[in-house]
Amino acid sequence: MAKLTIEDLKKIRQQAQGTVTMREGSHRAKITVHMGTCGIAAGARKIMDAFLAEVSRSGGTDVVLTTSGCAGLCSREPMATVEIRGSAPVKYIDLDEAKVKKIFEDHVLKEKPVTEYALVQGSETTY
């Protein structure tokens, strides 16, 4: 087995720190890609991969990327919800890789929702 370098140890530390941040709930932003059967059929895996690439590229440790099941709007898949701490969640529809890039850049990093790709802003409630 090869010896670890200081750079290797720094990378391991950064990865572990991101995991601890997610576990403790101290994230600033949360992205949920809706991956029910309809979402997967519409391309949600590509959307998930695109968000993963953006999170990795940014080096952010305060962004949580997660999945959920069907959001109930099969005809508007692939979909994702972006939540910024202290702001209402935004549900984005009809996503592709280019839209993901813009949403990540504007909403996740700059905290400015991309209204032209959004279906709704705010939380759903059930009474």
Overview of the structural elements:
With about 130 residues, this protein is α+β, with helices and mostly antiparallel strands. It has a single domain (about 25-120), classed as Glutaredoxin, CATH 3.40.30. It is built from four helices and five strands. It has a five-stranded mixed sheet, with helices on one face. Helix 3 packs across helix 4.
Question: What features would you highlight for this structure?
Answer:
single chain; about 130 residues; alpha+beta; Glutaredoxin; 5 strands; about 40% helix; globular
Give me the strand/helix succession: HEHHEEEHE
User: What number is the mean pLDDT?
Assistant: 85
The percentage of residues in β strands lies in: 15-25%
From the N-terminal CA to the C-terminal CA, the straight-line distance is 59 Å
**Residue windows where pLDDT falls under 50 for at least 5 positions:** 19-23
Individual helix count = 4
Residue share in helix: 40-55%
**Spatial arrangement of strands, main beta sheet:** 2-1-3-4-5
- Overall form: globular
The CATH homologous superfamily is called Glutaredoxin
Work out the radius of gyration.
16 Å
Named CATH topology: Glutaredoxin
Broad CATH class: Alpha Beta
Structural class category? alpha+beta
How many individual domains? 1
CATH architecture: 3-Layer(aba) Sandwich
Q: Sheet bearing the most strands, described?
A: 5 strands, mixed
Q: Which oligomeric state applies?
A: single chain
Number of strands: 5
